[in-house]
Amino acid sequence: MIDKRSFILLHSVAFVLHATSSVFAWLCNPYPVHARLSFKVDALTYQKATNVSTVGASRDEIIYASKVSPIGLVATNETITALSHLIAIYVLVRVVKNNDYEGKDGYSINYEYMRRWAEYAVTAGLLEVAIIAGQGTREWFLIVYMIVGNVVIQGMGYLMDAAPEFEYKPWFSVFGFLLLSVQIWLIATNAANTTNASENQEVWVRLAVLYGLLYSWFGVNQTCVHYSEWYRKTFNGDMIFVFLSISAKLYLSWSLIAEIRQRFYELGEPLTPKIWFETSLDATVDTWMTIKDFMMWVSLALVVLGYVITAWLKGTKDNQPARGRYKRFH
Question: Domain of 134: which CATH number?
Answer without folding.
Answer: 1.20.1070.10
